[in-house]
Amino acid sequence: MKISKKDALSWFEFFASLPEEEELMPGQQEIALSAFAQIEAAVKAKHDQLLSEIPNLKMLAGRTYYIGDDGLFPQGCKSCLLGTGLSAVRKTNRCNAACRFCYDYGALDRQPPVGEGMWEIGGTKFYEDDIDLLLSIQQKPTGISYVYLEPFMEIEKYYGVIRKFHQAGIHQHMYTNGINANETNLRALAEAGLNELRFNLGATNCSDKVIESMAIAAQYFPAVGIETPMTPEFFDSFQKKKDAILSSGIRFLNCAELHLNENNIDNYAGENLYMCRQGYISPIFSRNLTLRLLRQASEEHWPILVHDCSNRTKFARDLNLKAKEGGWFGQSTYGCEFAKLPYEYFLPVLRDEYFQFLEEEPMPKGFGLTDIVL
């Protein structure tokens, strides 16, 4: 069914009022999914329009969009989208920032430790000495990434592990907010063999100090770039410091479409949201800002590559990973991160008079709000 916006609003107001433990019946689920599909279809139409307006738009193997020199496409992303996936290496459970877009917002002080002297790789705990054993038994991945939470909180612990994976010929990249980066630890990281460093520049609203650290890093690493969730705050601060950022020596800008979970969704209450493929829930503004940046990059001939790391890209990533793992046809880990769908957070988009569904039909018989829908 192609539910009308008016009917969708009435039903979502009802769904939002239900007790948390009450599940929707199959007929009600059909109504809810119809509404989500209508919202998503309108969002996709806007995305398609914005994509059509970007000169020289490129696509990597049908999996993600970008603008710029092919040689600048980050190898870490290629490992993720084309290789054997991206193995996460976890160590640090602390952070020196509290970003409203963070998936651990409000829970940063409750993140469990990995363990003294230990590393989490593939969900398993390893000592540094165990990595030789791991590499001798299992097929090495095309790439690994250092995540969770801010590695530079204890960066000196990373050098030995990075050397081991470097000697094994595995591409390695790391995420940082850049607050604790300096020439000494950046040089040490590069000497250990880290291939790629990604700055979450949105974490500091494009801090001058972090931009300076990016320029220092560009002198030592084969590839330095930015990866940050696309928010209005980042977009505005980026525009103000665009020249300094683009001249810092970075190679790429990964524009991540912000998706929400139970920790950070309250920070975006009141924003227009959509659900992508019954999976990630995102503010509609996020990818719209990404596509505006891609167009700007193309029209202004920026010297860097700008990557549309969207929910669609994440979907392609998970399909690739499962295929490389030998999963069955169509298998993916992509899905919704909420145990129960937060219907109340979709009321703003349904109440927005400027947001319109593409096509509407009367509700089928038996699916009206006054009917008993099982």
Question: Which key terms come to mind for this protein?
Answer:
globular, TIM Barrel, eleven-stranded mixed beta sheet, 36% helix, 374 residues, alpha/beta
Can you characterise this structure?
The protein starts with a helix and ends in a 23-residue tail after the last helix. Helix content is 36%, strand content 15%. It is α/β, with parallel strands linked by helices and 374 residues long. The protein has helices at residues 5-17, 26-52, 75-81, 130-137, 159-167, 183-192, 208-218, 232-240, 242-246, 284-300, 311-324, 347-351, and strands at 58-60, 64-67, 87-90, 118-121, 124-127, 143-147, 171-176, 196-199, 223-229, 252-256, 273-275, 281-283, 305-309. Strand 1 (58-60) and strand 2 (64-67) form a beta hairpin. The mean pLDDT is 96. The strands form 2 sheets. An 11-stranded mixed beta sheet has the order 1-2-13-10-9-8-7-6-3-4-5, with helices on both faces. The protein has a two-stranded antiparallel sheet with strand order 11-12. It has a single domain (43-335), classed as Aldolase class I (TIM Barrel, Alpha-Beta Barrel), CATH 3.20.20.70.
On the 0 to 100 scale, the average pLDDT is: 96
Which outline best applies?
Answer: globular
**Global structural class:** alpha/beta
* CATH architecture title: Alpha-Beta Barrel
E-strand count: 13
> Which CATH class is shown?
Alpha Beta
What topology emerges from the helices and strands here?
Layout: H1 5-17, H2 26-52, E1 58-60, E2 64-67, H3 75-81, E3 87-90, E4 118-121, E5 124-127, H4 130-137, E6 143-147, H5 159-167, E7 171-176, H6 183-192, E8 196-199, H7 208-218, E9 223-229, H8 232-240, H9 242-246, E10 252-256, E11 273-275, E12 281-283, H10 284-300, E13 305-309, H11 311-324, H12 347-351
Parallel strand pairs: 3-6, 6-7, 7-8, 8-9, 9-10, 10-13
Antiparallel strand pairs: 1-2, 2-13, 3-4, 4-5, 11-12
Helix pairs in contact: 1-2, 2-10
